[in-house]
């Protein structure tokens, strides 16, 4: 695919010019020339994504615990949290900028809201989908309610929690980059937006590639943590 791209086969098929779709060698050259700037801005964007994901995932997990502990209102509360995730980033960005200013805080807030729902819903599902035989065993040992919750429900939710975290790695990068399109003076989204405005397409594509690489690394780190913390789970047994 990269060779076909380099040989301008896609340009021929889709009737594109090289200024519309730069070839890989030109993009690589732009990445090499601007490597310091790209690394600096990538670190800025990753900071927004990681902090926002950690805050959003933590809040989502807390909401899941509350919903599982009090199931009568839990499902309704999760619906409200899920509704926040349906709000477009385009509508959310100006509000977050008004509340938290044009600095990093507004993008962290956007990512927080985008990552809460996935964690809350997945963690709640894991806490509720407990093996009835395991529940009977805990009751036969006269385990108290908080002990059942801690040792059975929370432990059972961990695979679901890491599934949500892997979903949130992608959502957090999207939220941070798109948020930078609107209000930012740094970051890959800001650099990408400015590069397109001044027709520096190789630099713009460099931002896309660096963001993709950062997203993959972020995902692989979460996947590695999953293997470390879930050694006991059947999916990690050889």
TrEMBL record:
Subcellular localization is given as: Cell membrane
Q: Which Pfam families match?
A: BPD_transp_1 (PF00528)
Any one of the GO CC terms: plasma membrane
Look up and give the membrane topology term: Multi-pass membrane protein
Q: Where is the signal peptide?
A: none
- Domain named ABC transmembrane type-1: which ranges? 42-226
InterPro entries reported for this sequence: MetI-like, MetI-like_sf
A GO BP entry is:
transmembrane transport
Q: Which UniProt keywords apply?
A: Cell membrane, Membrane, Transmembrane, Transmembrane helix, Transport
Q: Where are the transmembrane segments?
A: 49-70, 77-100, 106-124, 160-183, 203-222
Determine the domain of life of the protein's source.
Answer: Bacteria
The family classification in the record reads: Belongs to the binding-protein-dependent transport system permease family.
The record's PANTHER family line, in alphabetical order, gives: ABC TRANSPORTER PERMEASE PROTEIN HI_0355-RELATED, ALKANE SULFONATE ABC TRANSPORTER-RELATED, MEMBRANE SUBUNIT
| Protein name (record) | ABC transporter permease subunit
Organism for this UniProt entry: Aquibacillus halophilus
